Structures
1.
Amino acid sequence: MNIALISHDALKKKMVNFAIAYEPLLLSHRLYATGTTGTMIMEATQLEVHRFLSGPLGGDQQIGALVAEQNIDLIIFFRDPLTSQPHEPDILALLRLADVHDIPVGTNLATAEILIRSLDQEGFIKRDHSQND
Ligand SMILES: O=C(CO)COP(=O)(O)O
């Protein structure tokens, strides 16, 4: 599956710990991330992450484009609910597209854990990437 990993600064440590904890599971998936989040995950794990621009520079929008093309199956996005972001419109646009295309989004650790553990279970919607590989 194609999984997008994104985190705001205050939650990057949480994202790195999440990636470390679920590294064995994440290893068998294709990972995408915004710039800084992806770099920190790659530094802390053996995971290969396709990194886009940093969020404030357009990374959320780049991932949004993948969502629009139905190339993302799951988004783990640890949003900071306590700090306003200069690129808030980009963030909302990404979440809107996820709803448009019915893509599961985990915006906190508790939800992310439920989603990631359900990946291998029957019933998790697998999208057909064959046309885009
Ligand atoms: O700002 C972000 C998501 O909105 C994350 O971007 P970085 O991973 O580059 O910090």
2.
Amino acid sequence: MLTMTKQHLHARSYFIDGVGSAVSPFDSELPTDLTDFLTRLPASGLSAWVRGHSGLVGWGELSRFETKGADRFADASDFWKQLSAGADVDDAVRLPGSGPVAFGSFGFSDRTDIPSVLIVPRVVLGRHSGRVWVTTMSFDDEPAPERLGAPSPLERPRAVTVTAGGRDDWEETVGKVVDRIRAGEAKKVVMARDAAARSDEPLDVRFLLGHLNAHYPTCWTYHVDGMLGATPELLVSSHDGAVHSRVLAGTFYNNSGDHDVDVEAARHVLAKSKDSAEHKYAVDSLVETLSPLCSSLEVDCEPFLLELPNVIHLASDARGHLTHRSDGSRVSSLEIAAALHPTAAVGGTPRGRALELIDELEATDRGRYAGPVGWIGASGDGEWGLALRGGRLDEDGRGVRLFAGGGIVGESVPEYEWLETVAKLAPMLAALGVRTER
Ligand SMILES: C=C(O[C@@H]1C=C(C(=O)O)C=C[C@H]1O)C(=O)O
């Protein structure tokens, strides 16, 4: 349900001089008055979307919009259009992510009770193309936005224990899915599982984000309202009409410790029909939805290998240009994300039947796992990834519900699918200081 806001948004973006371009927003030392940037961020209420040294980190909550159900994307789009349309904007930066922005995280399914959310922070630190800026946002009657606080040391997680749901049960379910696929009910179904990581003490989100960003610099490290992780999969980014999407499907997880050996083995294994078919379903589902929105769209002829520390994926990039609507406007990044979601990379093929099978057979409520996560700006431009390789912070802040899944096709072997999810949990487990899953 949409609540109308009468508040008038003010946003101001300005460059901060003297911040070196080789510094990540998560590095603890910035050679300016923003020294010890990360340690000065509040330990809660952070929003983040950072890849390597570029991205946005927001803090302070100026406005929050929550919604659920089939209209969640439309509701959130309306909220943001209304708030940003009348905004009084002084943007001296004019780079992707400058000016007013909202961070968002959306439920995977129309049926989850876990709300989807858009958060408008009071302050955003942004970095793009080596330039660094700050955006402040406020309402007419609001006090000045929050400044960075006094430094507080980052707390490394201690004594985290992990409890995963039963391996046998999950493999049995995957076996059922394989049977149903072989019986012709669907071509591909993505099945996920969860695991509970708990500590006696509150987890320091700043530490987890810093760890993920440092170890997975080619992934998008995200945190929105307790949903956090480092995803390698970009659902869509749009900037001035240029769109980009990175589809992943097909995963190699054997880590021999020797990079060249792994890449060679991945090349061999992923070329097999199981993985290339799985990948093709995901690319086809993207193209089918994106091409009607674009005047041009190009997709890699052959997938490439995306090498990450824990897994190697088959990946394809799609790049295109958006068409204009009759009134001259363009579809927003959030509207594109809504149209694309759920792709076959996280749902399956055909989409409707795959989602029914997930509903019927998957034991966990995905909540916002595998849903779009990212940010939107006043023009509708923005970046949305899939909330993978992460989890949802528990209400008390002392644990994370971790999620991982994989695409099941007729040739899938349940035992290997389990091992693939173990590899996909590794980034968060390492950030939590847990070596192996128990
Ligand atoms: C479902 C996940 O990942 C997705 C499934 C993949 C696969 O089945 O090969 C690969 C990348 C993602 O699209 C996950 O990480 O939990």
